[in-house]
Amino acid sequence: MIIALSIIAIPAALHLKEVAGLAGMRATLAAAETTQFNYLSLFDPKVFSLWTVVLLSVNAPLSALAFPHLIPVCGAGRTEWEGRVGFAYGNMLKRICTIGWCILGLCWLAYLLSTDSAIHPDAAFGDSIRMLLSPLLQGVMLACVLATAMSSGDAFQITVAGLFSENIYRVYLNPQADEQQLVRVTRIAGIAIVAVSLLVAILMRSSVVKTILDYFNILSLVGISTAMGILWRRMNTVGMFCSTISAVAVFVLTRYVGDYPREVTIGVPILAGVTGGVIGSLLTRPPSTEMVDKFFKKIYVPIGQEEKLDLSLDEVVPQPRRWLTAGGLFIVKPSRQSWIGFLVTSAICVACVAVMLALLSHRVWNPT
């Protein structure tokens, strides 16, 4: 419904006399260069940094790995194929929808510039929907936004609370805890998570956009240790803490203390996290071989073939399937299905970029 209502809002925005369609929108945004800023210069290949795109492409999967509910979501398919396709193309649908939201945002920006209105990035979507949709559709949009937020929020709350009760309370605080105690602790932890989230929401009032960007950057720093654990057998708990702490510390220094370009604030923390994870793991005791083998078997045994979990790791992933094992690495050769899926999704991403470039013609970067 959010997608459908957003699509309805786009032609309404383009038909505003202050916007005057795509051509009028482009002209208004480009003309702003003489008074304040050429917003379309952000799409100029001469201005846009390729390194930023590359680092963000590394940053995105690391952010995904930090979501605690991601593995259950991917494993919810009845088969391995359904889990992979559902997750991959669900995300692709969001990327395609981003084109529409981008056009809607640019139309609204053109409207604000044409009417000499104040520009509030945090309120842009709400203000545009309030103007472009009828009161009835505004109510439906609000209900859908709340439902979407709650569906993600409750999954995150339950998963994090369960991780706390199972991996911290049961392991370190009360190893003899029964199921009833664990349920009680999980409920209390869930309430604490909601309270902290509410506090963060109150503190982020100054700039929602900046807070969201920082949120995804910090998520990627947490995901570094997860990626290292999946790819490197030597990674242990100490390495995980060293990786996360060093990455977050460097991020804070480059983001808030110093004045560094975006390439530095994205790339250097990732490098610090990898370095911290390697050093922390090598200086401490490695995890047991049995535990590591069990972990990798759960990763590489397909859904619906759980009987293979009783086999050895060499039987589940034989040597010919292993791509790189030097230095404790455990990188498996991508299957033909993986390569085809990667190429198809990459083509969709390229198509999305091509569509945006077509909508924002090169002529508006240099109207003369």
**Measured on Cα atoms, how large is the radius of gyration?**
24 Å
The overall strand count is: 2
Q: Helicity, in percent?
A: over 70%
> What would the average pLDDT be, to the nearest integer?
86
Largest sheet: 2 strands, antiparallel
* N-to-C series of helices and strands: HHHHHHHHHHHHHEEH
Distance between the termini: 42 Å
Strand neighbour order, sheet with most strands: 1-2
Low-confidence stretches: 364-368
User: What would the principal axes of the Cα set say about the shape?
Assistant: globular
Please give the count of helices. Answer: 14
Q: What structural class do helix, strand and pairing data support?
A: mainly alpha
| Percent of residues in beta strands | under 5%
Explain this structure to me?
The protein has 368 residues and is mainly alpha-helical. Helix content is 71%, strand content 1%. The protein is built from 14 helices and two strands, in the order αααααααααααααββα. It has helices at 2-14, 21-31, 50-66, 70-74, 80-114, 124-132, 135-173, 179-203, 208-231, 237-257, 262-282, 289-300, 313-316, 336-359, and strands at 322-324, 331-332. Helix 2 packs across helix 5, helix 3 (50-66) packs across helix 11 and helix 10 packs antiparallel against helix 11 (262-282).
